[in-house]
Design brief:
Layout (H helix, E strand, L loop, with lengths): L9 E5 L15 H12 L5 E4 L3 H4 L8 H15 L4 E5 L4 E2 L2 E2 L17 H18 L5 E5 L20 H18 L3 E3 L5 H4 L7 H6 L4 E5 L5 H5 L4 H4 L1 H10 L9 E6 L11 H13 L4 E6 L30 H13 L10 E5 L6 H4 L4 H13 L4 E4 L6 H6 L4 E5 L5 E5 L11
Parallel strand pairs: 1-2, 1-10, 2-3, 3-6, 6-7, 8-9, 9-10, 11-12, 11-13
Antiparallel strand pairs: 4-5, 13-14
Helix pairs in contact: 1-3, 3-4, 4-5, 10-11, 11-12
């Protein structure tokens, strides 16, 4: 069987327009877009992730604005002028603490975006129209349903659209199917890390690992990792690597790719002088996982200080500042992209930690949790981060062999890990 993993890592950025942030879609200036893309190409990026705002494209359920769809196509074409591929997110949704739901699903027209038949019909219409706008453009990498749409499904969102696990899966299957029928390239969906860490979240790890063409993870160390371990501590600079390994545990196929679609250096929890080192260590560690398909850094440009009411963390995440000057993080990103894009792909770690998925476990996987702590200790001990095996799959000899796992370690809360070799034969491979 041919591996799904492309031999060359992708390196890209999430495109945040230098002028006007994502409100730039209101009065698109293609000259400014080209200026931004030229700077991004100078960072050795090979792709950008694009965020048209849902409520501007579809302000009424029956109105998909031709001018807005044309704008998206023109931005994709502008990226091609600089040899940049483009992934387009659809249901925006949510960006940098702001929600952009269209008026036809809010207040007087309040509808659950995951279950209401009227809302679903509107979402399907949008995906079809967006897919039509993207077809025939050779630099389209693919389409993602939306940015961290799972944050609408549960607390801590202040006005959630509550659903259960079955409804989450039904929504994904339905809309990914429409996207696959309509749009070219990779069809994916993106969740923030509550999927992996929070039992309240109805979008589950298996949904991330089974739905869509690649598994997508977003890594942010302001989730408690940097506060607990320090900005350059192992629990911070290895957080992206850990999420990639954790996600792969749910894969039925050993060679299903994982895309690190968002990762950034938040200077609210990482010292500004350490940001470039944080970036380098994060990228190098993540690139050491053979199933990684690409790294898309958040984000291209800083949010201008003239833009008000953003959380403080959002203003300094760019690789390029608001005046167009490449920051130390941008220079380091470019160096790493040049070095690692064509480097030989690593062999898998032969060691795996067993995660007990037969009971609620997501809090244990979060920074500070017993499983996370055990993984970090093992990574520091061995130099490489271990793989993760689900307890429900630890007797699947064929899958273990395909993943290159030779030794498994069981995690006991507060007691470190105990090891056993993978001997072959289901019973023989279980933990003592």
């Amino acid at each position: 069987m041919t591996s799904q993993i492309h031999p060359a890592l992708r390196f890209g950025v999430n495109y945040t327009p230098r002028s006007g942030w994502f409100h730039a879609w209101l009065d698109l200036d293609l000259d400014e877009v080209r200026r931004d893309f030229e700077a991004i190409a100078g960072l050795e990026a090979d792709h950008v992730r694009l965020f048209p705002l849902w409520h501007l494209v579809q302000p009424n359920r029956g109105l998909l604005r031709p001018a807005a769809l044309a704008d998206i196509g023109e931005v994709v074409d502008a990226a091609a002028e600089f040899d940049l591929d483009v992934n387009v997110d659809a249901l925006q949704g949510h960006l940098s603490s702001f929600d952009f739901l269209p008026a036809w699903v809010t207040t007087w027209h309040e509808r659950n975006i995951f279950t209401d038949p009227v809302a679903l019909a509107g979402e399907e219409a949008y995906l079809r129209a967006l897919g039509e706008a993207l077809r025939g453009r050779p630099n389209v990498m693919g389409l993602t349903l939306g940015n961290e749409v799972n944050q609408f499904a549960a607390r801590p969102h202040p006005h959630p659209h509550p659903i259960d696990e079955a409804q989450a899966e039904e929504w994904l299957v339905r809309l990914l199917g429409v996207a696959r029928e309509s749009a070219p390239g990779l069809i994916t969906h993106a969740a923030y890390d509550a999927t992996w860490y929070d039992e309240r979240q109805p979008f589950l790890p298996r949904h991330a690992a089974e739905q869509g063409d690649e598994t997508v993870v977003h890594s942010w160390v302001f989730n408690g990792a940097a506060q607990r371990y320090g900005g350059l501590g192992a629990g911070s600079v290895r957080h992206g690597e850990y999420l990639v390994q954790l996600a792969a545990a749910w894969h039925a196929l050993a060679d299903r790719p994982v895309w690190l679609q968002e990762v950034g250096a938040p200077v609210t929890v990482v010292d500004r002088d350490d940001a470039a080192d944080f970036l380098e260590q994060t990228v190098r560690r993540a690139a050491d996982v053979p199933v990684l398909s690409g790294i898309t850094w958040w984000c291209s440009h800083d949010v201008a200080r003239s833009m008000l009411d953003f959380p403080p963390v959002e203003y300094d995440l760019g690789l390029i500042d608001e005046d167009g000057v490449v920051k130390p993080t941008g220079r380091r990103f470019a160096e790493l992209a040049r070095e690692l894009r064509g480097a030989p792909r690593p062999a898998p770690s032969p060691v795996a930690l067993v995660l007990d998925d037969t009971r609620p476990h997501r809090a244990e996987c979060a920074p500070g949790g017993a499983f996370f702590e055990a993984w970090v200790r093992a990574a520091e001990r061995d130099g490489r981060g271990p793989q993760v095996v689900l307890a429900s799959r630890q007797a699947d000899d064929a899958l273990l062999a395909a993943r290159g796992i030779e030794r498994m370690e069981r995690v006991d809360a507060g007691a470190g890990a105990t090891a056993a070799p993978v001997l072959g034969g289901g019973a023989a491979a279980t933990m003592p």
